[in-house]
Write a structure and sequence with these properties.
The complex is a heterodimer of chains A (771) and B (159). With 771 residues, chain A is α+β, with helices and mostly antiparallel strands. Chain A has a 7-stranded mixed beta sheet with strand order 4-6-2-13-10-11-12, sandwiched between helices. In chain A, a hairpin with a 6-residue loop joins β29 and β30 (632-642). In chain A, α10 (332-340) packs parallel to α11 and α11 (372-390) packs parallel to α19 (727-738). Chain A is globular and about 90 Å long. With 159 residues, chain B is an alpha+beta fold. Helices cover 36% and strands 14% of the residues of chain B. Chain B has helices at residues 22-29, 86-93, 103-116, 122-129, 140-158; strands spanning 2-7, 10-15, 48-51, 54-57, 70-72. In chain B, strands 2-1-5-3-4 form a 5-stranded mixed beta sheet, covered by helices on one side. The N and C termini of chain B lie far apart (42 Å). The chains are: A alpha+beta (771), B alpha+beta (159). Chains A and B meet through α1 and α17 of A and α2, α3, α4 and α5 of B.
Chain lengths: 771, 159
């Protein structure tokens, strides 16, 4: 990997090998299912097999008679008011009636919705007993598509009077004027399929209610522990101080893991109910129907351009199939697609309406680059189509419309129907630099010669596109530094780890800030008892926000060291220097930091931020399409991204490559398929196909840090999502370009071999082309 | 049923229910929680262990089938107090892991491969680990790490 660091620091910017690896590589990680407590019992969740229905009766008798079964918990055991899952992002009161109860009360609204919890002596017994809970559900008409949702013939929430959960609008300029008399207007339907984050580790929880200590401890929490602690405490009627959430090692996040799900109440409640520790782990089948789904959107956009390719405006609407409930972050993808469809391009007039529709499917939430992957697919397709229609080189058309460095900070569309904290602007950078660099790394000038050519039976295509990546969501993040008796430094951060190497990266930042060796710093994260508050890991924020908080905490920490040393060395505080873990007075007298530990050398600071960071970059793809099978081989894929400040090129590069491959899965493979009856047909990893090691061998990434963010002391920008954003648009453009002789028009993902074959076949059958 | 196996160079004896998989037995009866379960139907490879020299999905094998077998889990690739094996060191150097959940299965699969075929080239490595899902890395760094570690296995074979 090429890096282009400018930092003079020793650790920040260096490819430090990860501290996490020391345990993971020996099989000594501590994931939640690795942990057990004495006297624990096991939960299994009975989930609805009916997509929409009224619960007539739940009879627990047979299950409760089974030896080893301790309890069968249903809504009636929880009380008159069954809690609902709070909305963490965009908590708009008008959609509160659409929040998900933690267990089905009188209705079920998707296959996989929890109906009962069985607690037994072993996981096997609990699963066996599920079959003996007799549930009688009267089926209601199923809403299995956006179209059915839009008719409002069958309502998920009759009292809400419509299946249209929410409408967002992104606005800028005056689209009516921009479209009036435009040389070229293209109307185009484009759609992204339902798929999901699919972290490798299924979810799990271990809850331990200790009545006599009045303390609930929950292991297996993640991502946003402080928010989730508040939620579960409120639901159970406990003080927040009686609840501790512990983050174990987590086998992947990608937006989905760690949000508040029904089980985040049900398992702690079960422990409270029984007075024993309760453990639960989902299997993969449950995971595929219970964890947040994502991305199912259909756009109908119009793009208006001048004859020279200058984009005048974009307008249209996006229909989002949200599933059955508005979950904790379910509104984020639809609001993002309204604001970020235009990405890095200067589009002065924008009017995008987004409709969030309820259907009898698993509720949606965020998946890495929520709304941004979808928006990028839409805009990159539109630009490519427009360039071809106008007879302009697609590269030149993008150059013409990329925001220039001189236009920074560049404002995005303004959001309507949402709280006021949504205006945002690209903070810094030069989009042309990353675009040009990407074309160069890719060897565009030579590869373009292959465009549309048939070589050894396969058609070759290339494409390029650009993206911006949002990061560093506020409001704050906290960090605490503490000098330990042995002279090492404990660093506590409110950021959470979901497998991204947080301990290493935070350790680098802290060690540099205090000028101590990396080994002297220990990083603690992800438990609610370390700090007063914390906000966690989402929106590519943990490095920027937690790292900035560490920098802020370092100053008072050093001041305390100097103050303590001044007393001991009897020298003026201002004249004490801190060198090599020693405090040194002007005359040369010195004292080791560890000898000052008794003076309580610690500091806690929080970094507040209302401005997001925008990393940015470009992607290029080269594909070969087999017209006989529809299979697409990705021969080369290159990304270039400027992330403001590189903390660890090793971990960053890993994020970039991993994200690209996830995006290729989104583009070519992954699909959560429902039939018209609302049944999920892809209930195992044999049906839900993700990229394997032999699918995409050539992925290249280059990361730059030429333009630091002006919005935080690190200068860093969130960088965990950029690898995925432009993949859908760029890879599908390459496929369409490869098949230009057939005149295929790609409207939807995924481009599975049968889907590509079908596109070709349609054109051949219509007499428009032959293989 | 009473069974015996040789687990990570140590003889163990245990009483195991006939319906228990080798994965659950290793994790919950023998404390080898480095073996991970991510699909329980033989697709993802996270639970791969080495049984009599062969990489095996321990979620698809009953514990009783491992009676009298030689079983190696990730914990057996390097002694607790020993430095990393060349394979583990290469994984760390190349950042061939992020969340760490698939890592145990990747390591055991790669160890079985390189032991049998120390000359495995990148294509061979890719095709063998295509039976192990990783959601974080995109596999590029994993292939690099395994390929680099091959040298140590070749040296082992020559000596």
């Amino acid at each position: 990997m090429a890096t282009h660091g400018k930092s003079g620091n020793r650790l920040v910017g260096a490819p430090i090998e990860r501290v996490e690896d020391l345990r993971f590589l020996r099989g000594k990680g501590n994931y939640v299912d690795d942990q057990s407590l004495p006297n624990q019992v096991y939960a299994a969740i009975l989930r609805s097999s009916v997509p929409h229905g009224r619960i007539r009766k739940i009879d627990k008798t047979r299950a409760l008679k089974m030896p080893g079964v301790h309890a069968v918990i249903t809504a009636s055991d929880i009380g008159a008011d069954v809690p609902v899952i709070p909305i963490r992002l965009q908590p708009l009161p008008e959609v509160f009636p659409l929040r998900q109860p933690v267990i089905a009360v009188d209705k079920v609204r998707y296959v996989g919705e929890p109906v009962a919890v069985v607690i037994a002596d072993s996981p096997g017994l609990a699963e066996d007993a599920l079959e003996y809970v007799d549930v009688d559900i009267e089926p209601l008409p199923v809403v299995a598509s956006r179209k059915a949702s839009g008719t409002d013939e069958s309502l998920l929430f009759p009292e809400y009077k419509t299946n249209l959960a929410k409408r967002f609008t992104g606005l800028k300029g005056n689209t009516a004027a921009a479209f009036e008399g435009a040389h070229y207007i293209k109307k185009q339907r484009l759609a992204v399929q339902r798929h999901m984050a699919l972290p490798m580790e299924p979810r799990g929880l271990l809850a331990d209610w200790q009545k006599h200590e009045n303390r609930l401890t929950v292991y297996g929490a993640g991502k946003v522990l402080f928010f989730n602690r508040r939620a579960v405490a409120e639901m159970l009627g406990f003080d927040e101080s009686s609840v501790v959430l512990i983050e174990n090692d987590i086998g992947g996040g990608f937006g989905a893991r760690g949000e508040f799900y029904p089980e985040d109440f049900l398992i702690p409640f079960s422990s409270y109910f029984l007075g024993r520790p309760v453990k639960w782990n989902e299997d993969r089948r449950e995971n595929l129907s219970a964890m947040n789904h994502a991305r199912e959107m259909e756009a109908e956009y119009e793009l208006a351009c001048d004859a020279d390719g200058t984009i005048r405006g974009i307008r249209g609407h996006v229909d989002v199939d949200n599933g059955a409930y508005v979950r904790s972050n379910g509104l984020t993808p639809p609001r993002n697609v309204a604001q970020f469809t235009t990405g890095p391009y200067r589009i002065p007039n924008i009017h995008i309406d987004v409709s969030v529709r309820l259907t009898n499917k698993t509720p949606c939430g965020t998946y890495r680059a929520p709304g941004r992957f979808e928006g990028s697919f839409f805009i990159e397709r539109l630009i490519e189509i427009a360039a071809h229609d106008l007879g302009i080189d697609p590269i030149e058309m993008r150059r013409k419309n990329l925001v220039n460095a001189g236009e920074m900070p560049y404002p995005m569309a303004t959001m309507q129907h949402i709280d006021p904290y949504t205006d945002t602007e690209c903070d810094s950078g030069d989009f042309h630099v990353t675009f040009d660099r990407c074309l160069k790394e890719f060897d565009w000038d030579n590869k373009i010669k292959l465009q549309g050519k048939k070589i050894d039976g396969r058609y070759h295509g290339v494409a390029a596109g650009c993206f911006i990546e949002g990061g560093a969501a506020g409001p704050r993040e906290s960090a605490k530094l503490k000098l330990d008796a042995d002279g090492s430094i404990s660093v506590f951060v409110g950021s959470s780890a979901v497998g991204q190497g947080l301990e290493t990266v935070m350790g680098q930042i802290a060690a540099d800030a205090l000028n101590v060796p990396f080994e002297r710093v220990k990083v603690f994260h992800g438990s609610t008892h370390y700090l007063r508050e914390g906000f966690g890991s989402y929106h590519s924020r943990s490095t920027v926000m937690g790292g900035s908080a560490i920098l802020l905490a370092a100053a008072p920490f050093k001041e305390k060291l100097r103050k303590a040393a001044a007393r001991r060395l009897e020298a003026p505080e201002q004249q004490i220097t801190l060198i090599d873990e020693h405090a040194v007075a002007p005359g040369g007298a010195s004292i080791a930091w560890k000898d000052l530990a008794a003076d309580d050398i610690s500091s806690e600071e929080s970094f507040s931020n209302t401005k997001h960071t925008y990393a940015y970059g470009a992607h290029c793809a080269h594909v070969a399409v087999d017209p006989g099978t529809g299979h697409v081989e990705v021969l080369d894929y290159v990304t270039v991204e400027d992330v403001g400040k590189i903390i660890n090129p090793l971990t960053l590069h890993g994020q970039v490559i991993g994200a690209v491959v996830q995006g290729l899965g989104s583009t070519f493979m992954e699909h959560l398929v429902y039939n018209e009856d609302g049944q999920l047909l892809t209930g195992s990893l044999a049906d839900y196909v993700v990229p394997l090691a032999d699918d995409y061998p050539v992925i290249r990434g280059v990361t730059l840090d030429d333009y630091p963010s002006p919005n935080n002391p690190l200068g860093a920008k969130g960088a965990g999502e950029g690898g995925i954003i432009a993949v859908g648009g760029v890879a599908s453009n390459a496929v369409e370009n490869a098949l230009s002789s057939f005149g295929v028009r790609i409207e939807e993902l995924p481009l599975t071999p049968p889907a590509v074959w079908e596109l070709i076949e349609q054109r051949v059958n219509a007499g428009n082309a032959k293989i | 049923m009473q069974i015996r196996m040789r687990l990570n160079q140590e003889q163990v004896e245990l009483d195991v229910q006939p319906r228990v998989t080798l994965a659950d037995c290793l994790r919950h009866q023998l404390g080898k929680t480095g073996t991970h379960l991510a699909c329980e139907h033989g697709v993802c490879g996270a639970c791969t262990v080495i049984v009599n020299g062969q990489a095996v999905r321990s979620c698809l094998m009953l514990a009783v089938q491992a009676a009298d077998a030689e079983v190696t889990t990730v914990e057996g690739l390097a002694a607790d107090d020993a430095p990393f094996s060349p394979l583990q060191a290469a994984f760390r150097k190349h950042n061939a892991l992020q969340c760490g959940f698939c890592t145990s299965g990747m390591l055991t699969t790669a160890h079985a491969l390189l032991t049998a075929e120390p000359d495995a080239d990148r294509d061979r490595i890719r095709s063998v680990i295509a039976g192990n899902l990783c959601r974080c890395t995109g596999y590029v760094s994993i292939v690099d790490a395994i390929y680099e570690a091959g040298e140590a296995y070749r040296v082992g074979e020559r000596s």
